[in-house]
Design brief:
By secondary structure, the protein is α/β, with parallel strands linked by helices. It folds into 2 domains: 3-99 and 288-309, 3-Layer(aba) Sandwich (Rossmann fold), CATH 3.40.50; 101-280, 3-Layer(aba) Sandwich (Rossmann fold), CATH 3.40.50.720. 37% of the residues lie in helices and 15% in strands. It has a 7-stranded parallel beta sheet with strand order 8-7-6-9-10-11-12. Helix 1 (12-21) packs parallel to helix 13 (289-309) and helix 5 (101-116) crosses helix 7. The structure holds NADP nicotinamide-adenine-dinucleotide phosphate. Residues 76-77, 97, 100, 104, 151-157, 174-177, 206-210, 212-213, 234-236, 260-261, 283, 285-286 line the site of NADP nicotinamide-adenine-dinucleotide phosphate.
Length: 317
């Protein structure tokens, strides 16, 4: 039986499955392992089932025991792993695409709705108990007829586009490569982020965290947006320069934000917590029982497939 280090606690049924297939070293206390502890626990293991909270950088990969042949990430994003360093050591890295698309797109829509319709302010008023209906109370921005810019029209971006269209939004997008018309389904492609941002009444960030996308929302690019635009991010916190965003909110250039993910999370820029129009969630994108089960099952299956066949369809390096 292959020995596998599972770095975070999984749902019970998934841990049972992992224990049936492997000699699984589970993390029943759900402790966040330091890099040193992860290295120590990986001694004698054949594979690691990691999560987005494990920073498996080049230095860590260089120190991994030779027995480690696969790192199966329990996420579709893999910005937490230096995949090139892993490739150099012949360690396969896998992810869990598709199974989390719908759940994450739901949260993307919640961010759009929450930010556009001033949900945070509404909740705060309800808690104060001294609110009253009036014709101009908490006037928000309506989705119908608004232009939605999608940065990263991949699996999640396209699912968001489909949902947003049913709310009457007009879809615009930017990818490095244009989609085929039948996949675009009427969405308008933009050759540059300047072009996309300038028509985005609402932006939904759905692209991966890479060197190219780091701080793609910054002091300069925030200027491209129409005044009063709304920016939402369901992908990764790395894409936003938080200081620039806070300034844009304070100046009312940006009307509201909807965030599920943060640079350096679980730390959140303290100014976001003071912004009345910020609708912010604690990284809930894939957090449904159905999806978390499917993700863990796929992460386990990736390891099983790799050890059984030497191949795996979800290898990313
Ligand atoms: P995907 O199918 O690979 O889509 C990513 C899209 O981003 C592609 O269309 C890609 O198109 C585009 N892209 C890549 N680099 C770009 C750039 N520099 N500029 C513009 N577009 C760029 O991935 P997915 O499954 O939709 O997942 C997207 C991301 O969502 C993941 O990487 C993950 O970080 C995040 N996520 C978050 C949660 C959560 O819990 N909040 C859950 C799941 C996923 P091109 O290659 O043509 O550029």
């Amino acid at each position: 039986m292959k020995k596998v280090l599972v770095t975070r606690k999984l749902l019970r049924s998934c841990e049972d499955k992992a224990s049936k297939l492997f000699d699984a070293n589970l993390n029943s206390n759900d402790e966040l392992y330091s890099q040193n502890k992860l290295l120590k626990l990986s001694e004698g293991c054949d594979g690691i089932l990691s999560s987005l909270t494990d920073k498996i950088d080049e230095e860590t990969i260089k120190k991994l025991p030779d027995t480690i042949k696969i790192i199966s990430n329990f996420a579709v994003g893999f910005g937490n792993i230096d995949v090139e360093a892993a490739r150099k050591r012949n360690i396969a890295v896998t992810n869990t695409p598709d199974v989390l698309t719908d759940a994450t797109a739901e949260i993307a829509m919640l961010l759009i709705l929450g930010a556009c319709r001033r949900a945070n302010e509404g909740i705060n008023w309800v808690k104060k108990e001294n609110w009253k209906w009036s014709s101009d109370f908490l006037i928000g921005k309506q989705l119908t007829g608004s232009r939605l810019g999608i940065l990263g029209m991949g699996r999640i971006g396209r699912a968001v586009a489909k949902l947003a269209k049913s709310f009457g939004m007009e879809i615009h997008y930017r990818n490095r490569s244009r989609l085929k018309p039948e996949i675009e389904e009427g969405a308008k492609f933009h050759e540059s982020i300047k072009s996309l941002f300038s028509v985005s009444d609402v932006l939904s960030i759905c692209c991966p965290a890479t060197k190219e996308t780091k701080d793609i929302i910054n002091k300069d690019t925030l200027e491209y947006f129409p005044t009063g635009a709304i920016i939402t991010n369901v992908a990764r916190g790395d894409m936003i320069d938080d200081e620039a965003m806070v300034q844009a909110l304070n100046s009312r250039k940006i009307y509201a934000i909807g965030l599920d993910v943060y640079k350096g999370e679980p730390r959140i820029h303290s100014e976001y917590l003071k912004q009345p129009t910020a609708f912010i969630l604690p990284h809930l994108g894939s957090a449904t029982k159905k999806t978390r089960t499917a993700m863990a099952d796929l992460a386990i299956d990736n390891i099983d497939e790799y050890f059984s066949t030497g191949k795996c369809k979800n290898i990313i390096n």
